[in-house]
Design brief:
Elements (H helix, E strand, L loop, with lengths): L2 H23 L11 H4 L2 E6 L5 E5 L8 H15 L5 E5 L12 H10 L1 E2 L5 H7 L14 E5 L7 E6 L5 E5 L3
């Protein structure tokens, strides 16, 4: 291949990689459908192998997350629907996912959906315990934890003392 041909091949490969990343990033979270794996920061990397296989790296929000099997299947379906022939999804455990990877857009989407986004940085919580959690409905900080376990393992159940509404809190970790 000539130098020009090689460069065009590299550009085409990078364009395909970017497109594959964009497609994978739009796969919704089956447990919180207003979020995508891109919003969550679960999507770590996308590469195109020399044989044309799209390799996607994802990190679970916690070990044993049942959504990972759905993520894998939905990523494969989305990429194949876009014309990518072979797809391999890899689970990457290190470094471990943290709520610090949530995009600001994801935090706003959670709040609008009625789930309190994680308060503060995960590293701060490890040092100082629970942060104040604002009610996603009325914004009050007069809230209390009802249970460490919410509708999914990554959420806790809280209640607002001001508006008396229960709500999920996306655990900070």
């Amino acid at each position: 291949m000539t130098q020009m041909g090689s460069r065009l091949h590299d550009i085409a490969g990078e364009s395909a990689r970017r497109r594959a990343f964009e497609v994978a990033a739009q796969v919704p979270d089956p447990e919180v459908p207003v979020l995508t794996i891109g919003d969550l920061g679960v999507l770590r990397d996308v590469r195109i192998a020399s044989d044309g296989t799209v390799e996607v790296d994802i990190t679970p929000t916690y070990t044993g997350c049942p959504a990972m099997a759905v993520f894998t299947m939905d990523i494969e379906i989305a990429l194949m629907a876009e014309g990518f022939g072979k797809v391999r999804v890899n689970t990457v455990l290190s470094p471990a996912w943290t709520t610090d990877w949530l995009s600001e857009e994801a935090r706003e989407k959670l709040r609008a959906y009625g789930i309190a986004p994680p308060a503060g940085k995960a590293s701060r919580r490890a040092l100082f315990g629970d942060d104040e959690v604002a009610c996603p409905r009325c914004g009050s900080l007069d809230t209390e934890k009802v249970s460490e376990f919410g509708s999914t393992a990554c959420k806790a159940l809280w209640r607002c003392r001001s508006c008396a509404e229960p709500f999920d809190y996306f655990k900070c970790h």
